Amino acid sequence: MKRTFFITCVLFNCFALTTSGQTDSLRQKIKQILSPAKADIGVAIYGFENEDSLSFNGNTHFPMQSVFKFHIALAVLNKTDKEELSLDQKIFIKKSDLVTRTWSPLQKKYPDGNVSLPLREIISYMVSQSDNNACDILLRLLGGTLEVDKYFHDIAINDVSIQASEEEMHKEWNIQFKNWTTPLSGIHLLRRFYDREILSEKTFNFLWGLMSETSTGKSRIKGELPAGALVADKTGTSDTNESGVTAAVNDIGIVTMPNGKHFAICVFVSNSREDNNTNEKIIADIARAAWDYFTLK
Question: Which of 41, 156, 182, 225 is the most exposed place for a label (fewest CB within 10 A)?
Answer without folding.
Answer: 156
